[in-house]
């Protein structure tokens, strides 16, 4: 997002009115999050008696809500947010790494190890991108809990992984695969042909080429997909609800927050603190790695 | 475990929390180490193969895991869901189109279908339209990256988080009480003394929920479209200007055609994300007060009422709703590949 030399298309839309509109939109877009942050820092009695905007005039801020929501959890619940926060991290990191590595391998095979039907495989993978997750939930849940059977024949045994992270990792890895293969393929296919051929002439195996040429050269693409996938998993509710249940043992923060949005009803000081806790990690990732994030976005949607 | 809130209890609880965290991270790190270890061994072993076996082995090792995951995780479940949708609640009896009949003839489900269609049309069009306007306006402003970042920021926030943010904005209280929700306060500020309880009033509430989706997606549309506009070659624009095109004409006859593909890609992407309206509806209203959507109803049927047949039928309907998008995207990709 750098300022490039000006282009006449843009100049023709130039006017103070336009600038005012953009500024107004920016303020409008930022205020809700800002209100959340301000509220989460205010004492309980203030939150319920007047609007957060008044706190800007008479500030009285503290971290008490965060302590309460992390370790005590508010009324009607036995644990705080802490175990769920840990779950979020423990789910997100492997669920980012697994699809990243496996998709990079698949993308390399589809781009550089030519074989019969590789185009068909590529198109199928691409098409699977648009299958709604909802289509896969029930059968996959049954597979995890009961295995797969064809009549009396057991194709896949019950995995016995209920109550652990494994089903969530696995589900995220599966669901990420189409987009990951597609995006990384776009990038890996554009590596210079001469370089690859030279490596083959030198007698390098595909495994060596992948490790010592493809992975290092694709680092930016891998980084941008990793950010995507991390945010996607961290922010996910549906997959977590189905495959992790709602317990402090496995469920991530999103599940807990969605529960609290119903159960904590009026306790805005706790709800806002909880919500801000869940938002802070993605925001840090977003603001510190924005460049890669945007690059990944553009690789996926603007060809050129 | 009871929590007294007294300092010692809270402290011991905190210690327990750290121990718990250590175990969980241990699991996570162990899984990663195991995964990378297996890969390393496979690579070392398979990398030694030479001759005629080398290529098939490479295809198998590189592509095998991804294909297996896709077949087990998406393709087989897809077929299975279609199968389930044609059977009764526990899958024991074939019922043909009964579940689909139920979906189209039950009043409450009809309402859900209408809501889902509204979501799929209104939210993506609004987000893409607003994103396009912003992309056109923001690019010539000084400090554009600041504006872009702030408008783009909600994209990083989970839909659950965004829902809580907006639930707070929409918080409504009796007219004699002090308002703590921004929207109610604004209504009062402009002299609307008795505004409705936002999330309870149909059909307004469905659109208020869509605002959350638009808030999240507009920045994405803006960033992608702005890049597409920057990529329009200067010569094209210059030529059009020499022919006398300016302002709005330049926009409609040069900018729009040049970025048409990107607009479609953005629209498609936002529509696919809109299928996740599930998160918003579930967090903000739980699907009550006439705001239910297909994805959430499907979840309640399958996991709340254990009716896999109906849940499956709703999932199939959801798929049929996006099928045109699938077709469009595949045609588009084919065309691009031919050009290449």
Automatic annotation (TrEMBL), chain A:
Membrane topology value: Multi-pass membrane protein
Alphabetized UniProt keyword annotations: Cell membrane, Membrane, Transmembrane, Transmembrane helix, Transport
Q: Which PROSITE patterns match?
A: ABC_TM1
Could you list the residue ranges that cross the membrane?
12-31, 89-113, 120-144, 164-188, 209-231, 270-289
InterPro entries named in the record:
MetI-like, MetI-like_sf
The entry's localization annotation reads: Cell membrane
Residue ranges of domain ABC transmembrane type-1 in the record = 85-289
Highest taxon of source: Bacteria
Q: Does the keyword Amino-acid biosynthesis apply?
A: no
Q: Give the matching SUPFAM superfamilies.
A: MetI-like
Major localization class:
membrane
Member of which family? Belongs to the binding-protein-dependent transport system permease family.
| Name the UniProt record assigns to this protein | Carbohydrate ABC transporter permease
Source organism: Kitasatospora cathayae
UniProtKB/TrEMBL annotation, chain B:
Membrane topology, as annotated: Multi-pass membrane protein
Annotated InterPro entries: ABC_transporter_permease, MetI-like, MetI-like_sf
The text of the family note is: Belongs to the binding-protein-dependent transport system permease family.
Keyword Lyase annotated: no
Q: Say which domain of life the source belongs to.
A: Bacteria
- Major location category of this protein: membrane
Residue ranges spanning the membrane: these are: 25-45, 57-79, 117-138, 150-170, 207-229, 250-275, 312-331
> Where can this protein be found?
Cell membrane
Protein name, entry field: Sugar ABC transporter permease
- Sequence ranges assigned to domain ABC transmembrane type-1 in this UniProt record: 113-331
- Keywords from the UniProt entry: Cell membrane, Membrane, Transmembrane, Transmembrane helix, Transport
* Species this protein is from: Kitasatospora cathayae
């Amino acid at each position: 997002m750098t300022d490039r030399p000006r282009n006449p298309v843009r100049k023709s839309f130039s006017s103070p009115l336009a600038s005012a509109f953009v500024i107004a939109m920016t303020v409008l877009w930022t205020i809700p999050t800002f209100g959340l942050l301000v509220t989460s820092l205010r004492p309980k009695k203030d939150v319920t008696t007047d609007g957060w905007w008044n706190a800007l005039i008479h500030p009285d801020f503290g971290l008490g809500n965060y302590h309460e929501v992390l370790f005590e959890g508010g009324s009607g619940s036995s644990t705080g947010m802490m175990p769920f926060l840990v779950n979020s991290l423990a789910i997100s990191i492997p669920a980012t790494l697994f699809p990243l590595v496996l998709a990079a391998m698949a993308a390399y095979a589809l781009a550089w190890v030519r074989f019969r039907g590789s185009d068909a495989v590529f198109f199928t993978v691409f098409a699977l991108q648009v299958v709604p997750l909802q289509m896969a939930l029930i059968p996959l849940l049954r597979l995890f809990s009961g295995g797969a059977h064809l009549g009396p024949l057991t194709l896949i045994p019950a995995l016995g992984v209920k109550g652990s992270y494994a089903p969530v990792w696995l589900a995220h890895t599966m669901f990420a695969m189409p987009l990951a293969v597609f995006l990384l393929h776009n990038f890996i296919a554009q590596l210079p042909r001469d370089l690859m051929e030279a490596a083959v002439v030198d007698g390098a195996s595909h495994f060596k080429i992948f490790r010592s040429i493809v992975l290092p050269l694709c680092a930016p693409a891998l980084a941008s997909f990793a950010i995507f996938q991390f945010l996607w998993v961290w922010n996910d509710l549906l997959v977590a609800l189905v495959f992790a249940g709602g317990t402090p043992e496995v469920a991530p923060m999103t599940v807990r927050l969605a529960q609290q949005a119903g159960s904590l009803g009026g306790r805005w000081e706790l709800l806002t603190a909880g919500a801000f806790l869940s938002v802070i990690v993605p925001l840090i990732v977003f603001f510190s790695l924005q460049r890669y994030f945007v690059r990944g976005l553009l690789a996926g949607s603007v060809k050129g | 475990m009871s929590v007294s809130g007294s300092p010692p209890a809270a402290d011991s609880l905190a210690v327990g929390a750290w121990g718990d965290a250590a175990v969980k991270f241990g699991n996570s790190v162990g899984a990663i180490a195991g995964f990378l270890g297996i890969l390393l061994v496979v690579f070392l072993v398979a990398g030694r193969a030479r001759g005629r076996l080398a290529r098939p082995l490479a295809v198998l090792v590189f592509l095998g895991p991804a294909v297996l995951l896709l077949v087990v995780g998406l393709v087989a479940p897809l077929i299975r869901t279609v199968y389930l949708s044609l059977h009764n609640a526990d899958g024991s009896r074939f019922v043909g189109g009964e579940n689909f009949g139920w979906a189209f003839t039950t009043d409450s489900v009809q309402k859900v279908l209408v809501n889902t269609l509204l979501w799929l049309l209104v939210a993506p069009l609004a987000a893409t339209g607003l994103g396009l306007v912003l992309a056109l306006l923001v690019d010539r402003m000084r400090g554009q990256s600041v504006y872009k970042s702030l408008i783009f920021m909600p994209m990083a926030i989970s839909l659950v988080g965004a829902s809580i943010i907006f639930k707070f904005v929409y918080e409504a209280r009796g007219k004699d009480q002090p308002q703590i929700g921004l929207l109610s306060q604004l209504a009062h500020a402009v002299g609307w003394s008795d505004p409705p309880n936002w999330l309870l009033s149909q059909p307004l509430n469905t659109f208020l929920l869509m605002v959350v989706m638009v808030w999240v997606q507009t920045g994405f549309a803006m960033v992608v479209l702005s890049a597409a506009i920057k990529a329009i070659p200067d010569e094209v624009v210059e030529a059009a200007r020499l022919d006398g095109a300016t302002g709005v004409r330049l926009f409609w006859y040069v900018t729009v055609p040049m970025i048409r593909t990107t607009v479609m890609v953005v629209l498609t992407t936002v529509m696919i994300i809109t299928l996740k309206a599930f998160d918003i509806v579930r967090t903000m209203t739980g699907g009550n007060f006439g705001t239910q959507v297909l994805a959430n109803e499907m979840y309640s049927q399958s996991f709340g009422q254990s009716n896999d047949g109906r849940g499956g039928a709703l999932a199939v309907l959801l798929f049929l709703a996006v099928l045109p998008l699938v077709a469009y995207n595949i045609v588009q990709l084919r065309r691009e590949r031919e050009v290449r």
